[in-house]
Amino acid sequence: MLARRDEVEIMWLVGSPPWMIRAPFLIEGALIGGVGAAIGSIVTVGLAVATVHAQASAMSAFLPGVTDAALAVLMALLLAGGVGLGSLSALVGVRDLKR
């Protein structure tokens, strides 16, 4: 937000509504959060799948609920959480945006 002060000020001066000024920040936050969560979830779920398939008997005794379906749900939740957290952090950054 601070790096783009001039751009935001110009948008205010030409009469842009507040949602039009906030939207690019929210989208950028969602993208950054989503990419970070995707990288983290791919690594985590990939290691978990490799472990489950390599040591199936030990994993079923140690963690009986860990299946491929459970790992897919975990990956989806991690991605949703990353996008949500990125959007929320961007929203907090532009919350004081006033005329």
H/E element order: HHHH
- In whole angstroms, how far apart are the ends? 15 Å
User: Major sheet, described briefly?
Assistant: none
User: What is the approximate shape?
Assistant: rod-shaped
Computed over alpha carbons, the radius of gyration is 20 Å
Helix content class: over 70%
For the residues shown, what is the average pLDDT? 84
Number of helices: 4
Would you identify the regions where 5 or more consecutive residues have pLDDT less than 50? none
Describe this structure in words.
With 99 residues, this protein is mainly α. It has one domain. The protein is built from four helices and no strands. The longest helix has 37 residues, at 18-54. The chain starts with a helix and ends in a 6-residue tail after the last helix. The mean pLDDT is 84.
In short:
With 99 residues, the chain is an all-alpha fold. The chain is 80% helix and 0% strand.
What are the key terms here?
99 residues; mainly alpha; 0% strand
Strand and helix layout:
Layout: H1 5-13, H2 18-54, H3 56-62, H4 68-93
